[in-house]
Design brief:
By secondary structure, the protein is an alpha/beta fold. Helix content is 23%, strand content 27%. It contains nine helices and 15 strands. Strands 3, 4, 5, 6, 7, 14 and 15 form a seven-stranded mixed beta sheet that branches.
């Protein structure tokens, strides 16, 4: 490999994990507003496999545009190697983490080097390593923008109404469905940080983990149906979402809200009759919010769980693990 090339994962076609190719490609050149990051770790997220399979889960009219071949990935943690002349605030040697260019698909983080927009980066929390930092941006910012502060005016592609977080405090009860996953375990901790009582829903193998994170009540969905056990909650954060999400409406009190992370099928007349609100948002890169989250990570107020790590060359195995489901926290790719 020459001094001007690097290793990266690229897609030349859509399909299963087998289409992820480990290749030698040119090191990206810096553009205005960018820094060159030597990548140490990469967070693996659902949009990575959506991109891999050609966005078949999204309606054609909302599918992002991209061309092949493409390097997948949006989350990274690494060290600044070079800085464009117009960039202030970062210097060579800085440890950084970020969610790059999302909701687009030009993050290109499954690589040894990335030309990253400085506006999408924050300094890595000193108290955590690159693996845990790389696992935080997309999942952490999703939970933050759903629960704490949206931070942008861009509408969700799935609704016209603007998403408005619920003010969380000691008087509120939040149910988190899919609480053990990437977004879910951040949402649980952020709700607890704000003082709310949290009911965590996941499979039984995650109970000890979620109680350690602060869950006040745990429901094993393989044994019980949450909508039959729980009533009168203020907020449901459904980190699973999808077609079955509307069953959680029965757990809400009048005036309550449901936030499906992956938007499902809801009837506005039914929502009005129940007196509840259903809204969502689409996570976007936000360095200022990431810096705030970084302070919580540094203090240990919020922590990142790692389901497993794989080398960059083993990205296929990482995607195969993701396809198995029942993930506890995040999957991360590491680069020596």
């Amino acid at each position: 490999m020459s001094a001007q090339t690097m290793r990266a994962i690229r897609l030349h076609e859509h399909g299963g994990p087998e289409v992820l190719r480990y290749e030698e490609v040119p090191i990206p050149e810096l553009g205005p507003g960018e820094v060159l990051v030597r990548v140490h770790a990469v967070g693996v997220n659902p949009p990575d496999w959506y991109l891999r399979d050609g966005m078949s889960n999204l309606p054609p009219e909302v599918r992002p545009k991209f061309t092949l071949p493409v390097i997948p990935g949006t989350d990274l943690s690494g060290v600044v190697e070079a800085v464009a002349a117009d960039v202030d605030g970062f210097a060579v040697g800085d440890e950084v983490f970020g969610l790059l260019r999302f909701p687009g698909f030009e993050g290109s983080t499954y690589a040894e080097y990335v030309a990253a927009p400085a506006a999408d980066l924050a300094l890595k929390p000193a108290g955590i390593d690159h693996v845990h930092a790389a696992a935080a941006p997309m999942a952490g910012l999703t939970a933050w923008q759903f629960l704490i502060e949206v931070g942008h005016d861009h509408p969700s592609p799935f609704q016209s109404a603007r998403h408005r977080p619920v003010a969380l405090d000691t008087g509120k009860t939040v149910l988190v469905n899919g609480a053990a996953g990437g977004v879910g375990h951040f949402a649980l901790q952020l709700a607890k940080w704000k003082g709310a009582r949290v009911i965590a829903v996941a499979s039984g193998r995650h109970e000890a983990f979620l109680r350690e994170l602060g869950a006040d009540e745990f429901i094993d969905y393989t044994k019980d149906r949450p909508e039959e056990l729980v009533h009168g909650v203020d907020l449901v954060l459904d980190a699973v979402g999808g077609p079955d999400s509307k069953r959680f409406l029965r757990t809400l009190k009048r005036g309550g809200s449901q936030f499906p992370v992956f938007f499902g099928e809801f009837d506005e007349e039914e929502n009005a009759k129940l007196g509840v609100t259903v809204t969502g948002t689409q996570v976007r890169s936000d360095a200022a919010q990431l810096a705030e989250l970084g302070r919580l990570l540094d203090a240990g107020t919020v922590r990142v769980a790692i389901d497993g790590t794989f080398s960059l060359a083993d990205a296929r195995a990482a995607h195969e693990r993701a396809a198995q489901g029942h993930i506890q926290g995040k999957i991360v790719l590491t680069i020596a």
